[in-house]
Amino acid sequence: MRKYFLFILFLITAGSLFAQYKSVADKSGFNSRFTVASAKMNSIASDFTQIKNLSLLSEKITSKGKFYFQKDDKVRMEYISPYQYLMVINGPKVMVKDGEKTNTMSSKSNKMFQQINQLMIDCMRGTIFENKNFTTRLFEDGNTYLAEMTPVASQMANLFKKVNVILRKSDFTVSQVQMFEPSGDYTSINYSNQKLNTSLPNDLFSIK
Amino acid sequence: MTYSALNKKSLNHLSITIIAVLILISCAPKTYKNLQSLNGNAVCISEFLPKYDRVLYRTTVDVAGNHLSGILLIKEMPDSSTRLVFSNEAGFKFFDFEFSKTGDFKVYSIIRKMDKESVKKTLKKDFQLILMNKPVNHLSPYRFKAQKEDEKYYAYHEGKDYYYYITNKDCTSLLRLERGSSTKKVTEAILQLQKDGVPESIGIQHKNFNFEIILKRIEENAEQ
Q1: Model confidence over B84-137: pLDDT tens digits?
Q2: What is the CATH number of the domain that holds A136?
Q3: A135: containing domain
Q4: Alpha-carbon distance A75 to A71, whole Å?
Q5: Are B173 and B154 within 8 A, CB to CB?
């Protein structure tokens, strides 16, 4: 009974996340403003806090780190606390370091990874509505846009029921990504202390 | 978000190789045939039972040259069941298992790539070994007839599977855990306990096969 209660509580909480959002009528206006804002943006350096919510266990696992993006297709996501984990995307190449081992691979060899990779880059480049792997609905509140992205392909839908990307209206930067699993668990990544267009060393994105 | 797919290839191989483990088990050496039963009970084992109230482990799985990493949460629930949830570092969940208070095993979720009976069965047995969740009155003491006289074996079995908790001669120190049949060793596990009873690290190694799971406790900050 307790489990059902927690589940209902989760649904109410999850529902309230979107309660204040309303649908955006002028999608093309959003698109053009997003594209203009993205064109001015060459790099991002920010902190992030990731919270994995295990709904039925009423449990949260929090991790923190640094995020870097360099136009056009370079991403570094570095988990620092409470564990260390590094992922670097540089064009088609991907490197993962899990503390003990480093794996390098090509996203071209993995269709699913290619799709996820593309989603991440689209969020930064302002091209999420051009992504054919998701159907996207757009909402807004006073300060943010919420792009609700639902996977089209079943392979991706097995992993994610939907992915919400929340963008700041002021500069179209991503403030939060929420990933909802079919099981009801979800993970949110909050980006903070964002610094735009600073000079980022190439080493951050080097893949050996 | 992005990184679940990174381990896809590894997971494919993981499934295949875990299935292969079951075939190779039959080639394992006869380890336990010289064990003889002893009088007495296994009460002394109570001292070594790990306490997994709520603990996170940095986890690596190496199987036949493939590498997989993630975070394992072990949590004791209010109904005294134990949940084991394994996700990758970015939060994507691989599986969610439960051992009930009485030791019954339940799979809440598992990703499709790992959703094979042999994989689930192997992981269930590996976790059952390290949880040491069998009441000690189900265990019986044994000793080897001639060799290894400095070790004592406390064992129980479920069907054809035997679970061994191995201590020093006086049962004042837990040396390792093993699983196998009544004659053959399949898996060996080492728990490094801390004073609070939570294992600091755990190593699970399958014999005669390159399959190893390493768990290292993650210390979380107070704010988390």
Answers
A1: 999 988 888 889 999 999 999 999 988 887 888 988 999 999 999 999 998 888
A2: 2.50.20.10
A3: 20-205
A4: 9
A5: no
Asked whether residue A1 is domain-assigned, the answer is: no
Which has the closest alpha carbon to A72: A127, A115, A129, A112? Answer: A127
- Give A134's contacts (C-beta < 8 A, 6+ positions apart): A119, A128, A149, A150, A151, A152, A163
Residues in chain B within 8 Å Cβ distance of A189? 1
Distance of CA A13 to the CA centre of its chain: 20
pLDDT class of A11 with cuts at 50, 70, 90:
very low
Do the domain assignments include residue A12?
Answer: no
The number of distinct structural domains making up chain A is 1
Which one of B2, B66, B82 makes the best mutation probe of the A interface by having the most chain A beta carbons within 10 Å?
A: B2
Residues of B within 8 A of A163 (CB-CB) are 1
Q: What is the rounded average pLDDT for all residues in chain B?
A: 84
pLDDT exceeds cutoff 70 at A86: yes
CB pair distance less than 8 Å for B4 and A96: no
Residues in chain B: 224
Domain residue ranges in chain B: 4-217
CA distance B2 to chain A (A): 5
Q: What is the pLDDT of residue B44?
A: 93
Question: A98 to chain B nearest CA, in Å?
Answer: 7
Residue A11: inside a domain, yes or no? no
Helices (H), chain A: 2-17, 27-39, 111-125, 154-159
The nearest alpha carbon in chain A to B81 belongs to A57
Please tell me the number of Cα atoms within 13 Å of B40 on its side-chain side: 16
* pLDDT one-digit tens code per residue, A37-82: 888 889 999 999 999 999 878 899 999 999 999 988 899 999 999 9
Distance from CA of B80 to the nearest CA of A (A): 13
Residue A165 falls inside a structural domain: yes
B94 neighbourhood in chain A, CB within 8 Å:
none
Give the helix/strand (H/E) hosting A196: strand A186-196
Task: Report helix, strand or coil for B187.
Answer: strand
Which chain A residues are closer than 8 Å to B220 by Cβ? 62, 82
For chain B positions 92-111, those within 8 Å of chain A (CB to CB) are 92-93, 96, 108-109, 111
Report whether CATH 2.50.20 matches the domain B4-217: yes
